[in-house]
Every structure is written in structure tokens, then in C-alpha cells.
Design goal:
Helix content of chain A: under 10%
Radius of gyration of chain B: 16 Å
Strand order of the largest sheet of chain A: 1-39-38-37
Oligomer: heterodimer
CATH topology of chain B: Cytochrome Bc1 Complex, Chain D, domain 2
Low-confidence stretches of chain A: 1-5, 11-20, 517-534, 685-690
Number of domains of chain A: 1
Strand content of chain B: under 5%
Largest sheet of chain B: 2 strands, parallel
Mean pLDDT of chain B: 85
Mean pLDDT of chain A: 92
Structural class of chain B: mainly alpha
Number of strands of chain A: 39
Order of helices and strands of chain B: HEHHHHHHE
Radius of gyration of chain A: 24 Å
CATH class of chain B: Mainly Alpha
Number of helices of chain A: 5
CATH superfamily of chain A: Quinoprotein alcohol dehydrogenase-like superfamily
């Protein structure tokens, strides 16, 4: 009895001192990835194969007014806790709370950041926010485009006065570096949702697109932990090591001093029981040219495990040495307790753009199946440094294309294939890790790559079923990226080489997360006529069709106990341009799937749910995009629901008042951002679930 | 005055009637206009959408199957409004209607819709009379 009391007291003290993992119900969705293991899994089954196609819109929330213009790129996954849906939305990246049953707006918080917001590298609505509670206080935390961490009262949306300064922590400060050139315009931001574990908020960093850096020098993407109560910085992890730290010697010629980027822009996963954080790190400055950063460049494109309390590195594994292909680790590591040959392993599985699923013991960092260092081709771009080997997982096999061979080319007809062969004769092709080339008018114009910038699995990441130990991952199988390099004019960049094509004016490439603010200046470089005897542009299409043959995108189920792909299906309706192509009449073409990189999956008790990335118009349905359900055991499609626009943010699910809901963000083309909640018709509920 | 107003109303009515039957396959812009739009596109759009309209790492292409499917069944007016309201991204509404119409003409030419005798108008309501059809309906 006495011991019991002492034990209980000790437990209470431990909770008081260290905090305890928050306990959420299976019926809620309390963090971006459903849980801190980033499974995107909820064991709900009211919506199932027998009734999925009967789903109806329960509510919808249009995001146009959350900002001074509509947004067409809504990527958030909402949270649901205690009957309230929380998410970010709109071109202002407002935080909002909605009644989870009706979609009614309960509160909204937006920050007007002026020039700082306008200069931010990652603008628009972001991917979501984080919820925290100690059982009494409830808080919502999110980052603004201008890189400030905001803490709000979850009940009212009011800033928490005791957090930072008036509810705000300026993330451009206290970062073990001076953000250059100044706090207003200094390039650093984030679009992912914060992660909160045991009262620690973990925040990474993102930058502008890295194909055409303005300079070989840039701010660095360190990762930090903050106290969720006060906003005080608890720890920092230097993703580019400082002098004296492990990995500094992988940056030759002092390049660690000035190289930047190398942030963690995607979702972070945490094992609260082990007290370990898993950081998927992106590329260093210069996605395709690393001549100014000779060496392996730790912790670029590495999976790094750090201590939740201190940020101290526990282990790391570099997936790509001296990154040259924009193979950012782009999605959340998935924490999975698996069983391999009778051995229980606490594992971490990392989906990637290159279609390898890297699986490690998450305590030790040792690969579950051997990862071999194999020799790879060295290129000949002047000044570049090449790694002689790269790591290749022996298991599981790659689940999407990560190189280009003649076998990958369009082959609907022999004539189309011949045209494709003519096109690729102007390019260099090869397997994964084929190096970029200097673009030349007489060839090669570029290295044609798959499984690089937008290939494989991108920011939406995979899903995981903890009962069956299966990882599910969407992958783009035909997102072709030509990687060519051109000498950079000094007024464009101080990089020796940037991405470009011979015969075309070198220019900055930007993305929707950049320069989207109302006060941003427009790019000033006027176009110039092609030089050197003509444009080097060669369309990568054959009669308007993709150069690469189907399937254009897949969803794969990968058994983590065995390291094997157990099923793989093409995901997405066959595009209109293929179904209606005059040159393909009479051919029996199986569903091709749709190229795209922004599709996330949701796993329930029985289903895998994911939407199409493109709009189609078919005999079976009017113009729209389908939300699809597959039997998660077999990959067989068991239901569809028509949406007005493509899925642009990953779906989530919850139960409330006896009803299961699925919420998904849709947007794109003519359709501005909208969250749509689906549920079963009330009258049919019992009949449908019997 | 009254007659003039009547005549202009009749003209608009006739145009709308004729326009209702138009699609992007009917030569709804001139090649001259498309050429006028190209430098504007290069200046205001290419940094995200690519000089060949093939899109960027994080920006959609403005040519090819996905683009055509996205707008199939809608109108050129819908596409015009999308551009007018939200582009260029860093300063929506910065371009005049005429500039937007010229850029749109360039997009149509880049997607190999045929040019014709009349320029693409710059009024949304008139553009909404032109259907965007990704494939030519068989005669």
C-alpha cells in the first residue's frame, strides 16, 4: 500500500516534471499525421466498402475570404479534437476553428505581416496546425508565412499572452545564426504543421525553390524545440554542423560556413515513449549543382534522430550523399512496430521521392534490411564534386520508377515509341543517381529523371496500419524532370551553375509559395531571344501524350514484416487527354492513373481512401475528380464519390455523435480552396452499416 | 440616340447568340494577338509556369493533358477570371484586361487551338460565351 502510494506520487511527480503524452481517442484526429507516428490511420469502420459511394456532403467550408484573394492551392489536413475542427486556410494562412458537425466557423485568427509576409519564401495556407492540452488549457499553435510561431487559446482563438511576446515567438531570432539580410526579407519560413510532443513544439525551416539559388550562401534550416507553455527555446539541432560538431568535416573547403538551406520543411515524427524525434532533412543550397559544397554534406538528405528533451543527435543515416537530384526527404518518417523473422523491431520507415522505402531500427538507426553502398556514375559538370557510391536498400524493392530507360517510354503504338526514342536522343538517361549534365544545344539538353524533384512520394507522405504492419504510399511514377545546368550570369546568381536549358535565358524559377504577397516586386528580368542558333526546347510529349508510359501514379501496399510489396494499383482516372485521344481509338488501355505529387492517403479499419489529382469528364461522371476507396487488404476499388475539384490536401477522418466524417481539402484550376466533409446519409445509416 | 442604343443592343444580342455556339476550336483569337501575348507571358508568368508552359516544381503546367482536363467543359471566361483575380501571383490584378486577353491568346496558341480572324475579347461576359473543350467535337 505504502509502495503503491509512493509509486503514484512518483508518477505524479514525473508527470509534473516531464509532462505526459497526450491521450486522444481513436475517434479524433489530434495531429497532422493522425498521431505522432504519422500513420494517417484511424480504426473507424462506419464508412466501409458497402456504403462509401453513398457518402454525402455534410458541410463545406470555402476559404476565399481568409485573405485578400482566393487561394487555389489548399493543402491542409485539419485536426479534430472535442468536436472542433482546427486548420489553416486561405491566402492569409488564417487559423480557424469549425464546428465538426456543421462546419460553422467558431473563430478565426489571421496575422497581417506586411512586407515580411510578402517576402516570405513559403506563403499561402500551409499544411495545418498543432493542438495541445494539459487537460485544462487547450492551445492551437501554427506558424505564419513570415516565420512567427503563434499560440492561440483553442476555445476562443485569442493569442496566449504568456507565450513569447503576446502569443508570438519570432522564429527569425534565437536561431544560432543571423538571418540575412534582415528580419523582414531574410529568406526562411515554413509551410508544414508544427508538431507537439510532451510539451515541446518542434519547428523546422523551409526556403524558396532550390533549382536556381540566388547565391551559394543562404540561411540555414536548423530545427528547434520550444516550450509550449512559454515559447522559450529549449534546444536546437544544427542540420549543417558547426565547427567541432559531427559531420562538419563532410563539408570541404569550409563550405559548411556559407552553405544554407538543409532544412526540415516537411512533417516531423516523434516517439514520445522513447523520447526520440525523427527529422527528414532536405537538400543543401543548390538542388542540382553542388560544386560550391564539396563533400558528402551531412545532414543533407539524411534521416536524423534527435533527443526530444535536448535536440542532441542520437543517430543519422544519409540517404543520398552529396545531394544533386532534389531528393529532399520530403515526407514524415513513419514509426512502425514490426516483426521481422520473429524479432520485434521498433522501426521507422521513410518513403521518398526516389521510391525507396528505407527502413531502420528507430532506436539504433541500423537498417532492418541491409542498405548497400553501390558505385554510381560520376558526371563531368565543371567544378562538381561527386560521391562515388550511393546507398541502395536491399528490401523492400523500389515502389516507383526512379530512373529512365527505353522500356519506360510510351508504347501505345510503335510510331509513338519511335517518336519518344527520337526525343530522348537529345537527353541523357539512366538509372537512379544518374548525374545532371551541363545543357548543350547539340545534346544532351539535360538528364531525364524520374523519382527526383516531384517523383515518388512527396509531402503528403504515406500511411501505416499498425495492426497489419503495412505501409501504404502514393507515388508519382511519371513525374519527369529534366535536370540540365547552365552557367549562371553574375547578375542572376553567384552560383557557377543553375538549372536551365541551353539556348534559353537563364532565369529564376519560383513556386507558388514565393512572391505571392501583395507587396512583392515582380521578377524584373525581361525575356531575351534564344541565343546560339535556336531554342533548346524539346517538348517531352508525344502527340500530346506523356513521354513515359503508364501507370502514371500508383498506390503501393508494402508489408514491413517481410519487406515486400503486396499490392500496387494505378491511382486516378485515365486522363481525358488519353481517353479521348484520336490516335488511341480502339486500343484497350487499362486505367493509367494520374501524374501528380500531392496525393495523401487515409487508412481506416478496412479502407484506403485517396482522391484524384486531376479533373476528368467521362461517360460515368460529369466534370470532377473522384475520391476513391480501396479495400486496404487487396487494393480493389470499392467505392467512389465525385468532388468538384482535385484532392489537394490529404484526407482525415473522425467520429462525432455516432457519425463518421471524412474531411478533404480540394482546389486547383478554376476551383479555389475548400474543405469538404463527407458523411453517410442519416436515414440509411443503420441499413448501410449492418 | 434611341436607335443607336437599339442597334448596339441588337449587336450584343447577336454576338452573344453567335458566341454561344463558339468553342476554342473556332478560331477565337488571332495569331497576331498570340504573338503579342508571348512576351507578356514571359515577363509575368514564365518564372513560375516555365517558358514552355510546362510548369515548375510546384506550379501547374499551362499546356498538356492535365491543364486541358482542368478547364474542359468550362469557358474561356472562367479561365480569364482565374487569371484576372489571382495572377500574377505576386500582384493579382496588376495587368489590364487587354494584357490578360493577349496572354490568354498566347496560352490558346501554345495549346494548339486554331487562330482565326477576330481577336479574343477582353470582356468576361463575352469570353464566357466561348466553351473550353479539350478535344474537338467530331463534325
Amino acid at each position: 500500500m505504502h509502495h503503491l502510494k509512493t509509486g503514484a506520487l512518483f508518477a505524479l511527480l514525473a508527470i509534473a516534471c516531464f509532462g505526459q503524452p497526450q491521450r486522444f481517442k481513436d475517434s479524433e484526429w489530434p495531429t497532422y499525421g493522425a498521431d505522432l507516428a504519422s500513420t494517417r490511420y484511424r480504426p473507424l469502420d462506419q464508412i466501409n466498402a458497402s456504403n462509401f459511394s453513398k457518402l454525402e456532403v455534410a458541410w463545406r467550408f470555402k476559404t476565399d475570404s481568409l485573405g485578400n484573394r482566393p487561394e487555389y492551392k489548399l493543402e491542409g489536413t485539419p485536426l479534430m479534437v472535442n468536436g472542433v475542427v482546427y486548420t489553416t486556410a486561405g491566402s492569409r494562412r488564417a487559423a480557424i476553428a469549425l464546428d465538426a458537425a456543421t462546419g460553422e466557423l467558431l473563430w478565426m485568427h489571421g496575422e497581417r505581416e506586411g512586407a515580411r509576409g510578402a517576402a516570405a519564401p513559403r506563403q499561402l495556407s500551409g499544411r495545418g496546425l498543432a493542438y495541445w492540452s494539459d487537460g485544462k488549457d487547450e492551445r492551437i499553435l501554427y506558424t505564419t508565412p513570415g516565420f512567427r510561431l503563434i499560440a492561440l487559446d483553442a476555445k476562443t482563438g485569442a493569442p496566449i499572452p504568456s507565450f513569447g511576446k503576446g502569443g508570438v515567438v519570432d522564429l527569425k531570432l534565437d536561431d544560432d545564426q543571423t538571418i540575412a539580410p534582415d528580419l523582414t526579407t531574410g529568406e526562411i519560413g515554413i509551410q508544414s504543421a508544427p508538431v507537439i510532443a510532451k510539451d515541446t513544439v518542434i519547428i523546422g525551416a523551409a526556403f524558396r525553390e532550390g533549382m536556381t539559388p540566388k547565391s551559394r550562401r543562404n540561411n540555414k534550416g536548423y530545427v528547434r524545440g520550444f516550450d509550449v507553455r512559454t515559447g522559450k527555446r529549449l534546444w536546437i539541432f544544427h542540420t549543417i554542423p558547426m565547427k567541432g560538431e559531427v559531420g562538419y568535416d563532410t563539408w570541404l573547403d569550409g563550405s559548411a560556413e556559407y552553405t544554407g538551406n538543409t532544412g526540415v520543411w516537411t512533417q516531423i515524427s516523434v516517439d514520445e515513449q522513447l523520447g526520440l524525434v525523427y527529422l527528414p532533412v532536405e537538400s543543401p543550397t543548390g538542388d542540382y549543382y553542388g560544386g560550391h559544397r564539396p563533400g558528402a554534406n551531412l545532414f543533407g538528405e539524411s534521416l536524423v534522430c534527435v533527443d526530444l528533451k535536448t535536440g542532441q543527435r542520437k543517430w543519422h543515416y544519409q540517404l543520398v550523399h552529396h545531394p544533386l537530384w532534389d531528393m529532399d526527404i520530403s515526407s514524415a518518417p513513419i514509426l512502425a512496430d514490426i516483426n521481422v523473422s520473429g524479432r520485434a523491431i521498433k522501426a521507422v520507415a521513410q518513403p521518398t521521392k526516389q521510391g525507396f522505402l528505407y527502413v531502420f531500427d528507430r532506436v539504433t538507426g541500423v537498417p532492418v534490411w541491409p542498405i548497400e553502398e553501390r558505385p554510381v556514375e560520376k558526371g563531368n559538370v565543371p567544378g562538381e564534386w561527386y560521391s562515388s557510391t550511393q546507398p541502395f536498400p536491399s528490401k523492400p524493392p523500389s515502389y516507383s520508377r526512379n530512373g529512365v530507360t527505353e522500356d519506360d517510354l510510351i508504347d501505345f503504338t510503335p510510331a509513338m515509341r519511335d517518336q519518344a526514342l527520337t526525343i530522348i536522343s537529345k537527353y541523357k538517361i539512366g538509372p537512379v543517381f544518374t548525374p545532371p549534365v551541363e545543357s548543350k544545344l547539340d545534346g544532351p539538353l539535360a538528364t531525364l529523371t524520374l523519382g527526383t524533384a516531384s517523383g515518388g512520394t512527396n509531402w503528403p507522405g504515406g500511411s501505416y496500419d499498425p495492426e497489419t504492419h503495412i505501409v501504404y504510399a502514393f507515388a508519382c511514377n511519371a513525374c519527369l524532370t529534366p535536370i540540365g545546368l547552365v552557367k549562371s550570369p553574375k547578375d542572376v546568381s553567384d552560383m557557377n551553375y543553375i538549372a536551365g536549358t541551353a539556348g534559353q535565358e537563364p532565369r529564376m524559377r519560383t513556386g507558388p509559395g514565393e512572391n505571392a504577397g501583395a507587396d512583392s516586386p515582380i521578377p524584373s528580368r525581361a525575356p531575351a531571344p534564344a541565343r546560339g542558333g535556336g531554342s533548346g526546347y524539346v517538348p517531352l510529349t508525344v502527340q500530346g501524350l506523356p513521354l513515359i508510359k503508364p501507370p502514371y501514379a500508383t498506390i503501393s501496399a508494402i508489408n514491413l514484416d517481410k519487406g515486400e510489396i503486396i499490392w500496387q494499383v494505378a491511382h486516378g482516372e485515365t486522363p481525358d487527354s488519353i481517353r479521348n485521344h484520336s490516335g488511341l481509338k480502339g486500343l484497350d488501355i487499362p486505367r493509367t492513373g494520374q501524374a501528380g505529387y500531392s496525393i495523401g492517403t487515409l487508412i481506416t479499419k478496412t479502407l484506403l481512401i485517396a482522391g484524384d489529382s486531376q479533373v476528368t469528364t467521362t461517360n460515368e461522371h460529369p466534370r470532377g475528380a473522384m475520391l476513391r476507396a480501396y479495400d486496404k487488404a487487396t487494393g480493389k476499388e470499392v467505392g467512389t464519390v465525385l468532388m468538384p475539384a482535385p484532392q489537394s490536401g490529404s484526407p482525415m477522418t473522425y467520429m462525432l455523435n455516432g457519425k463518421q466524417y471524412i474531411v478533404v481539402a480540394v482546389s486547383g484550376g478554376p476551383y479555389s480552396g475548400e474543405y469538404i466533409a463527407f458523411t453517410l446519409p442519416s436515414t440509411d445509416e443503420h441499413a448501410e452499416t449492418r | 440616340m434611341n436607335t443607336l442604343r437599339r442597334a448596339s443592343q441588337l449587336f450584343i444580342f447577336c454576338f452573344a447568340l453567335a458566341g454561344a455556339m463558339q468553342s476554342v476550336w473556332d478560331g477565337v483569337y488571332t495569331s497576331e494577338q498570340g504573338k503579342r501575348g508571348q512576351p507578356l507571358y514571359n515577363k509575368y508568368c514564365a518564372s513560375c509556369h516555365g517558358e514552355q508552359l510546362t510548369g515548375g516544381e510546384d506550379s501547374p503546367p499551362l499546356t498538356g493533358g492535365a491543364f486541358l482536363a482542368n478547364w474542359n467543359g468550362l469557358t474561356v471566361g472562367d479561365l480569364f477570371e482565374r487569371i484576372r483575380i489571382s495572377m500574377p501571383q505576386n500582384r493579382p490584378g496588376r495587368l489590364t484586361r487587354q494584357q490578360n486577353a493577349d496572354i490568354l491568346a498566347y496560352l490558346l496558341s501554345a495549346n494548339q487551338f486554331p487562330a482565326g480572324e477576330a481577336e479574343l475579347p477582353a470582356e468576361t461576359e463575352r469570353l464566357k460565351q466561348i466553351r473550353f473543350e479539350s478535344t474537338k467535337k467530331s463534325e
